[in-house]
Amino acid sequence: MALIITTITLLVVIALALIRAFAGPTVFDRILAGNLIGTKVVLIIAVMGFLFGRPDFLDVALTYALINFISVIGVLRFVEITRRSREEDKS
Amino acid sequence: MELIVSIISGVCLLAGSFLVLSGVIGVIRFPDFYTRIHAAGVTETLAASLILIGLMLIAGWGIVLLKLILILLLVLFTSPTASHALGKAAWKSGLKPTNLKQRNEDRN
Amino acid sequence: MLFSIYGLISASFFMSMDAVDVAFTEAAVGAGVSPLLMLATLASVGRYQKKPTDPEIPKVALLLVIITGILLIIGTLDMPAFGAADAPAHQHVAPRYIKESPEEIGIPNMVTSVLASYRAYDTLGEVVVIFTAGIGVLSLLNFRRRRRNIHLIDDIIAIDEHKILRIVSKILIPPILIFGLYVQFHGDFGPGGGFQAGVIFAAAIILYVLFFGVKYAHQVVNQTFVRVFSAIGVLLYGSVGVVSLLNGKNFLDYHVLAENPTTAQHIGILVIELGVGITVACVMILIFFSFIENIEKVIQELRK
Fold first, then answer.
1. What's the pLDDT tens digit per position in C236-291?
2. Total number of domains constituting chain C
3. Which backbone phi and psi does C200 adopt, to 5 degrees?
4. Mean pLDDT for the stretch of residues C198-227
5. What subunits make at least 3 CB pairs under 8 angstroms with A?
6. Domain of B36?
7. Residue C221: inside a domain
8. Is the CB of C164 inside 8 Å of chain B's CB atoms?
9. Of the ranges A31-35, C8-12, C87-91, C139-143, which is most confident?
10. Residues C149 and C302 sit within 8 Å (Cβ to Cβ)
11. pLDDT of residue A50 exceeding 80
12. pLDDT 10s digits, C57-96
């Protein structure tokens, strides 16, 4: 029962975070929402693995946790690089 | 004994979901980026740990438990780091926190 | 970024449709690596396109596109309804795979046995496509240029700025590599296999490049080595086929590799997955390196 409630809450949370991802005034808001969704997806995969009785889902959750971090960091880095080069371009 | 464990895990899961929900409401409602990152970052770590601990309690001993612990460690490592990097990058790029007092005075 | 979120969410769709392997791949590729490559492209070509001086509608191309689109739509009319139980795909080979693959191949993960044994031709094709893509990117971006003037990316972003990130990524990289190996060799039993493992491996290297700069990464990952190995992966795959040809069986028939048919299948799948993993990892690393070097070149030109 608690598993089902958790799954539904996580789904709602992802939907709500999507609003911030679309609305977010700065690029950082979007990245924040992406990071949030990534963590929630890791959790939802783990919970769903238990819900369906297939714990091998956890491998996927693990991959997600890794990849999510790498992609958030990578996106940040690129944003930084493009910003710097644009600033240098102006000056 | 089993009943107690499952009750504890249920409580952990529900508390985790509550925190997750409150975090995302913060992300939507808060006025500027830094308060949003505060809402997300603070709830994220605790909520993820609570939900994973709740799962661990019903997992029992075995490789599943090991994987859950790995995921928990990973989340504990990466999500504060990601928040830190985000905050720092935003600050470096010149994003300033909204001055709420100022804004309210402007409105009035 | 939205692209990456799309990857994450579609992976949870696949998850709920029980396609664990697909979700795994989407997790690794769609959510992680492809947004990075998109952003790298944006960073190197600039964000906006120059307006063409005389906007002229390419009529022939437009006509061609419309005709092709109409033909495709007409083609879909013949296809069975989505999820229909009497679709040919569910009648012809799928029941056989589901019924007999445990006895014939002897590994628990059916997706792997279909991918690497029944459909080994197709997978070989996919690996060759990946390899070709790698060659294409290389020849577009840095074939002419001998590596003369590679400065650090840290030249652009001071290296001390990211102390915490660098320490955390230092801690994370070895476990990621080990996890990649686990995924590589666990493909027989659960979700995983060469494609995913290759991407995870490459992701670890990408993390390194992002924080320690290209110069150090060049010292860690030898470029010639990567180039040679991206070809060796394909060769490994193909040579399994050639071995079975030379022994008088069909191309990619694993039964020549050992006496016991199940053992032979096991060996064949293992070798093939290894080939796939090596190629995918090397090509990903190559592509990422050429993108990063290209960005540095652009930035250096801006400075002049």
1. 888 877 777 777 666 666 666 666 767 777 777 778 888 888 888 888 888 888 87
2. 1
3. -65, -40
4. 79
5. B, C
6. 2-107
7. yes
8. yes
9. A31-35
10. no
11. yes
12. 677 888 888 999 898 888 877 766 665 556 555 566 666 6
pLDDT tens, position by position, A22-41: 777 777 887 888 888 888 88
Structure-token pair, residue C185: 């060799």
- Domain span at C172: 107-303
Tokens of residue C302, six digits: 């801006």
Domain-embedded: residue C254: yes
Q: How far apart are CA C277 and CA C284, in angstroms?
A: 11
Average pLDDT of chain A is 79
The domain total for chain B is 1
Residue C46 CA, distance from chain mean position = 26
The 8-class DSSP code of residue B71 comes to H
* Spatial CA neighbour of C133 closest among C291, C285, C25, C283: C283
Q: Which residues of A touch B68 (CB under 8 A)?
A: 46, 58
Residue given tokens 């808001």 in the structure block:
A29
C302 and chain B in contact, CB less than 8 A: no
The shortest CB-CB distance from C171 to any of B77, B84, B88 is to B77
What per-residue confidence (pLDDT) applies to C243? 78
